[in-house]
Design brief:
With 373 residues, the chain is mainly alpha-helical. Helices cover 73% and strands 2% of the residues. The protein contains 19 helices and 2 strands. Strands 1-2 form a two-stranded antiparallel sheet. α2 runs antiparallel to α10 and α8 runs antiparallel to α19. The radius of gyration is 21 Å and the shape is globular. The termini are far apart.
């Protein structure tokens, strides 16, 4: 039986050759996939996520995390078994979109507020789609109902809380423990803003690169016919057609997966699973954001599956108890062109970011000393 050390290079070589052949022999499909990825980055990803990435990092680097987390300290400590200073980052992760939580976690570890082990624990549940994407794009755009989007978003939040409680119970580290190197330091607000913007810009570029790459890969899989082969195999195994045709895109990239699933008439619960799983593309984005921090990738992906399953269960339960709600769901027959910066939810989120920044202007010449959790 071949060892893993020999199998991985063989598989990697095969995939590289296959991808190279796809780009050489299907250049039009590759170009269209890359163009779709670029369009998504410009219209959805950057407007909806970049402000939150800056804010989540700024809250920690400026020392505001300790101050804003005080009201949440009892919940953070006793519900999630984490230091009180993590409360603000948890909230940002729930409302800021997939990578925002990862950026905040990395900042907390680098600032010495939490241990790497506590950061890994936070990573099990501080990953989720933001309200702008879930409610506006998936709910209103794909399912034809803002109410559907609200149900999906609430299901995501509920699943995150349950997974956070579970991981807190499984954690063996005290929520009062702090890193041995933890020190009290002061950082000017202006310096914190500059550092946060620079870090988030670098992270945003990496995220866009992965989105373009996976969008190109999905286009090649469809054009080459490989995706259809997988779909037929899943249909043979008894998987419903609406799920079989969109399973590969959902596993790889959440936006294309949700769009195809909705067009195929998949249930909102299936889309809820897709949002909780997030897709390997998002996983790679988060891995890049946490570069240098030790954590288990396998454990992370296992909790994403758990999150997706719990979210789908919540969505299905709500739809079962509210049968009239499901009647308003409708799939789209043509591609959706979401403009995140122009919808109400996105505007409210951006206003919240602006309000937070304005609150710091009065203290721009003052040093803020971070307090212990």
């Amino acid at each position: 039986m071949p060892s893993v050390s020999r199998t991985v290079p063989v598989i990697s070589t095969f995939l590289c050759i296959a991808a190279s052949c796809g780009i050489l022999f299907l250049p039009q499909a590759a170009a269209e996939g890359a163009g779709t990825g670029l369009s998504f980055c410009a219209k959805v990803l950057i407007p909806s996520l970049f402000p939150f990435m800056v804010l989540s990092s700024f809250v920690v680097k400026s020392g505001l995390s300790s101050f804003l987390s005080r009201p949440l300290r009892p919940i953070t400590q006793h519900l999630f078994h984490l230091p009180g200073c993590a409360g603000a980052t948890i909230v940002m992760a729930l409302i800021g979109g997939y990578p925002s939580g990862a950026r905040g976690i990395k900042a907390l570890v680098e600032q010495g507020e939490i241990t790497p082990k506590q950061g890994e624990q936070m990573l099990t549940f501080c990953v989720g789609a933001g309200p702008a994407f879930v409610i506006s794009v998936v709910g209103t755009g794909l399912l034809g109902s803002a109410q559907a989007g609200i149900i999906l978003f609430v299901s995501q939040i509920a699943a995150s809380v349950l997974v956070g409680i579970l991981s807190g119970r499984l954690s063996r580290e005290s929520h009062f423990s702090r890193p041995a190197s933890s020190q009290i330091s002061s950082v000017r607000f202006a310096d914190a803003l500059v550092e946060s913007t620079a870090d988030s810009t670098s992270g945003m570029l990496n995220m866009c690169a992965f989105v373009i790459l996976f969008s190109t890969l999905l286009s090649l899989l469809r054009e080459s016919g490989f995706a259809q082969v997988i779909t037929q195999a899943l249909l043979f195994l008894g998987v419903p057609s609406s799920a079989a045709d969109s399973l590969i895109p959902i596993l790889l990239e959440v936006t294309n997966g949700c769009t195809l699933a909705a067009q195929n008439g998949a249930s909102p619960a299936f889309l809820s699973f897709a949002l909780g799983w997030a897709g390997i593309c998002v996983h790679f984005q988060i891995f890049t954001s946490l570069n240098g921090l030790p954590f288990s990738r396998i454990k992370f992906m296992g909790f994403r599956l758990l999150h997706g399953g719990i979210s789908a269960l919540f969505s299905g339960l709500v739809l079962h108890l509210s049968p009239k709600t499901s009647e308003v769901f409708s799939t789209v027959s043509q591609p959706v062109q979401p403009l995140m910066a122009a919808d109400l939810t996105g505007s409210l989120m951006l206003l919240a970011v602006c309000a937070m920044f304005l609150l710091t202007l009065s203290a721009k010449d003052m040093d803020f000393t971070k307090k212990k959790c």
